[in-house]
């Protein structure tokens, strides 16, 4: 498939190159036959960011009203790759016989081998909406429907201070500083994603939010630790211009990362690696 990978120089999802023999060994270990299209892609580049960011969905999800996010594809490897699927399945209570090809805990996209050993459909799992449904009858169909979503200004009015890549941010969704502080004080895994709707207009706003995230991290368990790591990664990505230029901000980020690292969780470690790569 031409122009599939973005070929970024520092891509946390791109693993070392593999051979057809590596794929054959992995298939024996997994007990399934991987889709031919997937094998062709990972021989070209073993995982990474892709030149698409969305797949259409008839159901609303925690990402958007009409699509799911797909901006990278996991390659073949034990860390940051599909061979880590079994560990994530156990950790997140997902069904057995899945090969996870995209996801972070909130949501997963998987090759679904529950009823077959080859030519699997592609399935979506959304822990926030407690939804799971089929996206495509085959990986080939899945590839054919990937597209790049760009928000329509007529459909979505952005809040000043909130990064435009956050989907479907309506003015009524913005939260106040008091609401953000309450969410972080209560430290509920189900609500922590809402802190992304706190408008960050300047460095003071950013450092205040990071300070509160740090305080919440000190009492975090694995569940809300994952949510805090996801939120931290998003905040840093959306406001990288502020983060890179201020030593206090960088120190806060590193302090939070060090605290969350102590939870010894593979999902958190993956997110922290991405945060480190962005600094």
From TrEMBL:
It holds the Pfam family SUKH_6. This is SMI1/KNR4 family protein. It comes from the Bacteria. Residues 17-145 form the Knr4/Smi1-like domain. InterPro entries: Knr4/Smi1-like_dom (IPR018958), Knr4/Smi1-like_sf (IPR037883).
């Amino acid at each position: 498939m031409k122009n599939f990978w973005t070929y970024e120089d520092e891509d946390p999802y791109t693993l070392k190159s593999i051979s057809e023999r590596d794929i054959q060994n992995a298939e024996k270990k997994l007990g399934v036959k991987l889709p031919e299209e997937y094998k062709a892609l990972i021989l070209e580049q073993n995982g990474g960011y892709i030149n698409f960011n969305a797949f259409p969905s008839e159901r609303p999800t925690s990402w958007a009203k009409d699509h799911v996010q797909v901006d990278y594809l996991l390659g073949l490897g034990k860390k940051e790759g599909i061979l880590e699927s079994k560990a994530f399945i156990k950790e997140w209570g997902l069904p057995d016989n899945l090969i996870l090809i995209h996801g972070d805990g909130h949501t997963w996209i998987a090759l679904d081998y529950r009823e077959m050993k080859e030519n699997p459909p592609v399935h979506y799992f959304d822990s926030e909406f407690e939804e799971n449904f089929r996206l495509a009858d085959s990986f080939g169909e899945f590839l054919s429907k990937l597209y790049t979503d760009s928000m329509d200004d007529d459909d979505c009015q952005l809040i000043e201070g909130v990064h435009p890549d956050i989907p479907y941010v309506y003015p009524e969704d913005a939260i106040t500083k008091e609401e953000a502080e309450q969410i972080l004080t209560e430290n509920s895994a189900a609500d922590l994603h809402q802190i992304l709707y706190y408008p960050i207009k300047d460095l003071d706003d950013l450092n205040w939010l990071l300070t509160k995230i740090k305080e919440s991290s000190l009492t975090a368990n694995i569940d809300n630790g994952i949510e805090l790591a996801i939120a931290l990664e998003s905040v840093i990505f959306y406001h990288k211009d502020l983060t890179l230029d201020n030593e206090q901000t960088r120190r806060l980020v590193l302090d939070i990362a060090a605290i969350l690292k102590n939870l010894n969780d593979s999902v958190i470690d993956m997110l922290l690696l991405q945060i480190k790569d962005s600094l």
